[in-house]
Every structure is written in C-alpha cells, then in structure tokens.
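pls design
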C-alpha cells in the first residue's frame, strides 16, 4: 500500500550503509530521529466534511482516510505537515470518476454547492499543487486514477489516446504490449499521471531522445466549468496560437483534462547507458555541450558536479565496486574534482553504436574516462527507487528537497554557483546544509540545473519548516536574480507562484488570469495555484 506520509509503496525501503551515514554525519552533523504523529491520531483530528451529499449520484467519498490521503503532495512542507500532524486543510470529499460525463457532473455538483475543485493525478507534486485552500468553501478533490485506459492506438500515425489519469507504469505496459513506448520517465514515474505531466509541463529523464511532455502531447479533451475544449492531434497547424499550450502547464486552473493523445515511438531495438568520468566539471560541461549542439542522437545526458558525484558514490551502496572504481579513476589521474556523466543511447543497434562512438570521441577530447555500462545500467535500474531514500533519511532526522531551473549555456556556471551559494548561506547559527547539483536536461541552447539540498530536521516541525523556507526562499531569489526560469519541470503550484511575475511580466500574468476567468468564471478550479489572488487568479 502507498505510504500516507512518505514516498511510495510501504513494502519498499532504501537502506543506508554505515559508511553512508557517516558521510551525512560529516556533511551536516548528526540527525535527530523525528517524533512523528501516528495515522490514527491524524485521522481523529479531521474536521467533518462540509460537502452535502450529491443528489442522484454517489461519486463523492468523505471518509477520513481518503480525505487525508488527498490532503498533501510530496513537497518538503507537505512532508513536515504530514509527519508532524499539522495539516491545516483537508478536502471535504474525494471523487473517482470513470468517464468524461462523470467529470462534467462533478463540476456541476461543485458549482451547485459553491465548492472548489482540485484535479488530482498521482499527487506527486513537489510545489503545493494539490493542497486544499483554507476558506469557507468546501473542497472537492477529483482523483483521475480510474480513467487509465488506452482507448485508441493509431499505429499508422503513432498516436495513442489515454484516459488522463493513467500512471507511468500503466502507460508503458499498455503501449509496450503493442510494440510502442511514450518514453516519458520522470523520477516520479511510478505514481505520476499523464494528466499531471501535461498540467505541469513535466520532463522525463530521457527527454533528450523522446522530448518533453509538450513535444509528446498532441491533443485531448478538457472539461471546464465553462464547457468542453477539444484539441485535435494535428501534426502541425498554422491556425493561430496553439491552444495545447494553454493546457500545458495549466495546473488544474482551467478545467480537467479527461483524455490525452500522445505521440508514441516504436519500442527501441536497443538501449545502453554508460558512465564517463571527467577530471572536472568544466571539462564535462564542454563535452556535453558539444554532444548536444552536434545533435548526437542520445536519449540521456546527465552531468553531476564533483559534490554530487561524491555524494552519489557515497550513498550508492556497492562499496567494493565503488572502491575499485575510485582506484581505477585515481590511476587515470582523476581526483576529488571528478564528475560523472551518464549517457543514454536509444535506437537501432547501428545507430546506438555510431552515437556511442561519436560521444566517446568527444568525451575523450575533454579528458573523459569511459568506465563502461555497469554504473549506467545500475543507475537505470534503480532510477525510480532513489525517491525511497527520502523515507530513510527522514527516519534518521534528515530533510531533503530539490529545486531546479534552466538557463542558457553562457549563464549555467554562474547560476549554479549562485544557487548553491545562496543555499549554503541561508541557515542561521552555522547550521550546515549539503547541496549538490547535476545538469539534468540539456539543450543546444542551455541546460536545466537540478540542485538537491539536505539538512537536519529540527525537533520542532515549525523550525524544520522555517529552515526549509529560508533555504527555498534564498535559492528562488538567486534563480530569479540571475535570470533563470523559476521551474524547468516541477511547475509553479503555490510555492513558486510569488516568483512567476519575474518571468511572465504583469501583462502576461493578467492575460493568464483572463484565460482562467473565461474557462472558470466562478473561480472554483484550484485557486491559489499558478496565479495568486493578487493577480486576479482567485475569487
Ligand atoms: C520523487 C519525485 C520525483 C519527481 N521527478 C520529476 C521529474 O523527473 N520530472 C518532472 O517533470 N517532475 C517530477 N516530479 C514532480 C511531479 O511528479 C510532476 O509535477 C508530475 O507531473 C505530477 O503528476 P501527478 O499526476 O502526480 O500530478 P498531481 O501532483 O496530482 O497534480 C499536479 C498538478 O496537475 C494538475 N492535474 C493533475 N491531473 C490533471 C488533469 N487530469 N487535468 C487537469 N489538471 C490536472 C493538478 O491539479 C495539479 O495542479 C517529481 C516528484 C517527486 C515527488
């Protein structure tokens, strides 16, 4: 069963070795195991539902466990609230529609009871997308998980239509059985959904080969309070602005995406993941830039800084293997500044071979040492397990969060330094943080910068939250000041909303608020997310 206050399936754990714990101890100090509230205690604290029963249908559940399970997502403030039992608002009811008509009926019901509606995919948001707002109006969360079927596969055009609540593994299982793949693998793949990916402009780990969700999303149907919007899956169109881009990133503000048509690819004949180590980050970055600007047909390029490389090796387990690797790299002259690059090659056998040769040639020119497939394959096999580490760290008293941005190549090194610098200086009383970064998605013009920061949780949840707010605020301000986007892939939600005006401008935000008012005249869809009330986004 899925954990109610942590990540993932409660039968899966991610143990940490004694050496890994020592590494953390040295980095930030000893953690103090938290005193978490119990599930029965939280359930007993739920206020009664304010939703009155719907006449004519019983789609809405109001039992406390379901309401609790939909109260928070996966951001660090969500974790602190769940573990500390400080959840300020719960949905009053949760519905699980099975078709578009039921979604429309639920929206009509919500309007009738003057409620607010939160569209819900997998609940994996890390920026406060699905948290019920406080206030007088009852909140209905609409969980799309029962709309999870492949309803049409046009294999001639390579288009597949799904119910928008389909989760990552269900997408791939249904497509792979028919010889296709979507190739969209966010780290939250196990639980996040197609509708959530579209609504947050998600990026999968192999977006270099398959494209981000905006390249994959061809069309669909949005059910809004004001009516239905149908987006045909044209291969291309010059008929005015592309309305798909209103839906991409709409974060549940405009309506509910009930079905989505996506561009799929035939299953690749061959796939390989390799690791290459560079003497320093500058060399790694130069090699990566050449690979991507040379349009090499790769599906993944992921370059870690020296600190992230050290951290990954320390936390990976497999101590004997890592010892051998360190010796080998030492012999080749690579020291503590070494950086790991993961490369993915996907395609037919000949294409993979040619791309590998070309990439390795470039790497060599920048001092790269190719260590073969073992580390790459290990990363690939464990890539959806890494989030389980959050549970273990929490139990040892460590909080961990990530943040991300994107900028042009010219600004990548300075931006990276400024984000990490802001994080390291953010906490008072010499409380230490451990920050490390990788370039997670690369483009000919620039890269996304993905920083993880780890710090000690305090005995008092409010203090943990204050530490997080200081860290997140400092890093977000550094991103905005250096001209980066406030999000490359996690979206805006509530946590990034204050920073959005810096990149959209006042006129841009006003235009978005006008669009939201057109789709949702009574302001019932996910208020406070993406647009704040001061921007006309909340009624
Ligand atoms: C451990 C972890 C790793 C992650 N890794 C990545 C990553 O690699 N790449 C990445 O892009 N993101 C990542 N994320 C962030 C998150 O998984 C994505 O934002 C994801 O797209 C959210 O999908 P979801 O189905 O869980 O949506 P939810 O969290 O349920 O909802 C997110 C937003 O989408 C809206 N929404 C959901 N479904 C619909 C619908 N059918 N119609 C209209 N609106 C809808 C919601 O109202 C909400 O505003 C990660 C998160 C975690 C916790």
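designed seq:
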């Amino acid at each position: 069963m899925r954990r109610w206050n942590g990540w993932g399936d409660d039968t899966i754990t991610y143990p940490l070795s004694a050496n890994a714990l020592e590494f953390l101890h040295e980095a930030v100090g000893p953690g103090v195991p938290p005193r978490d509230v119990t599930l029965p205690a939280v359930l007993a604290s739920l206020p009664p539902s304010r939703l009155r029963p719907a006449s004519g249908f019983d789609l809405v559940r109001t039992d406390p466990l379901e309401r609790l399970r939909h109260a928070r997502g996966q951001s660090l403030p969500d974790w602190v609230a769940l573990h500390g039992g400080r959840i300020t608002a719960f949905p009053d009811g949760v519905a699980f529609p099975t078709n578009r008509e039921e979604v429309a009926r639920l929206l009509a019901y919500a309007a009738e009871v003057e409620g607010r509606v939160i569209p819900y995919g997998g609940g994996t948001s890390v920026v406060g997308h699905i948290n019920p707002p406080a206030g007088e109006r009852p909140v209905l969360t609409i969980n799309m998980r029962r709309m999870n079927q492949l309803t049409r596969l046009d294999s001639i055009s390579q288009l597949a239509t799904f119910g928008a609540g389909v989760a990552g593994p269900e997408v791939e299982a249904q497509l792979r059985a028919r010889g296709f793949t979507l190739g969209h693998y966010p780290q939250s793949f196990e639980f996040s959904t197609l509708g959530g990916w579209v609504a947050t402009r998600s990026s999968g780990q192999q977006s270099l080969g398959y494209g981000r969700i905006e390249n994959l999303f061809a069309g669909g149907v949005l059910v809004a309070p004001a009516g239905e919007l149908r987006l045909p899956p044209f291969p291309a169109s010059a008929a005015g602005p592309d309305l798909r881009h209103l839906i991409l990133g709409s974060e549940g503000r405009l309506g509910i995406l009930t079905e989505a048509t996506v561009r799929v690819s035939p299953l690749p004949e061959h796939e390989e993941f390799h690791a290459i180590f560079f003497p320093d980050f500058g060399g790694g970055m130069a090699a990566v830039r050449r690979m991507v600007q040379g349009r090499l047909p790769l599906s993944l390029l992921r370059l870690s800084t020296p600190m992230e490389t050290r951290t990954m090796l320390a936390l990976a387990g497999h101590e004997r293997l890592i010892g051998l690797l360190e010796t080998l790299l030492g012999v080749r002259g690579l020291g503590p500044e070494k950086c790991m690059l993961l490369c993915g090659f996907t395609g037919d056998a000949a294409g993979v071979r040619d791309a590998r040769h070309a990439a390795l040639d470039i790497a060599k020119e920048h001092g790269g040492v190719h260590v073969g497939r073992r580390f790459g394959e290990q990363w690939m096999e464990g890539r959806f397990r890494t989030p389980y580490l959050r549970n273990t760290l929490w139990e040892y008293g460590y909080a961990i969060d990530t943040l991300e941005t994107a900028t042009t190549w010219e600004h990548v090194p300075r931006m990276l330094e400024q984000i990490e610098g802001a994080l390291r200086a953010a906490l008072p009383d010499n409380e230490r943080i451990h920050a490390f970064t990788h370039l997670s998605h690369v483009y000919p013009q620039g890269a996304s910068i993905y920083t993880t920061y780890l710090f000690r949780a305090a005995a008092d949840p409010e203090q943990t939250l204050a530490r997080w707010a200081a860290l997140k605020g400092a890093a977000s301000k550094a991103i905005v000041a250096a001209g980066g986007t406030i999000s490359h892939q996690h979206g805006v939600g509530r946590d990034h909303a204050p920073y959005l005006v810096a990149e959209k401008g006042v006129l841009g935000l006003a235009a978005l608020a006008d669009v939201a008012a057109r789709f949702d005249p009574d302001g019932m869809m996910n208020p406070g997310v993406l647009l704040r009330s001061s921007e006309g986004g909340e009624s």
